[in-house]
Structure formats: structure tokens, C-alpha cells
Amino acid sequence: MVQRTKIANITFLLLILCLAAFIAYSPAADNLSAQGKVLKGEELTKEQFKALPDSAVIEFKGQQKTKGQIIAEVEQKRKQTLAKMKNVSKSQFEVTRAKFLQEQKAKIEAANAKAKADFERLKANSAKYAAIKQEALQLFNKSKTATPAEQEQIEKRANELLQQLKQMGY
Length: 170
Fold this sequence. Notes:
The chain is mainly alpha-helical.
């Protein structure tokens, strides 16, 4: 029983020593213990920076500032940026919006004009197509009873109709 208590005490003591050694050698602890010296900002991680007290002196881009000063400058710049964003007037937004809508309207009108032109072309082609189709049917019916000389004329006219269809895009 006494030996178990001694083993438990020794284990507990070793655990405390390991924990103390871990804390003593962690990078954040190194920076925290370095309050008296200037720290290089380029070498600090985010976590190390957060762990530093506000009075820690940090050198960054050749300037030495405390963590508190750096945080205050960043906060001031953030507030200035927010103020600038709020100062963007509603009229600027409306001008940009109107310009955008005008450009969209112009694009739509151009697309509509093209579609109307295509429709008119197709409508005109449709009438031509119907006439060609009608003539082709007449030629076909005529060819059933045509003489060899008439057959030759029918073939010639059929080829002309075929060329017209090809020109129309069929």
C-alpha cells in the first residue's frame, strides 16, 4: 500500500515537471517572457501575437511599436474604411445602376432586332420554300407521264430548284 502511494506521488511529480517543462519551452511562453526585448513581427505567428501582452514591443518593417499601438492603428484604419464605404452616396449607386440598366437595355434591343430580322428572313424563305415545294410536286407528277425530252427539262428545272433551296440554307 505504501509503495502504491509512493508510485502515485512520483508519477504525479513527473507529470507536473513535464507540464512545467512544456510551458517553459513553448514559443508563446518564449515571447511572453521576452517582454523586455523587441520581438520581430515577421517571425511571430498569429497565435504568438495574440498571446503577447499589449505592452510587448514589436519591430515590423523597421518600426518599433507596442502590440496595443498596432491594434489601435488597425482599428482606426478599419473605422476609416467603414466611413468611406458609408460616404459612397446613394446618387453614385443610382448613376451606376442607371448605366448598367441602359447597357442591358441596349443589348436586349440589339438581340431583339437580330431576332426580328431572322424571323423576317425565315418568313420570306418560308413563302419561297412553299412555292419551290409546290413546283417540285408539279414536276414530280409531270415526270410520271413525260417524254424523254420533257424528262430532261424537268431534271434541269429540278436542279435549279435544288440550288435555290441550298442558297436558302436548306
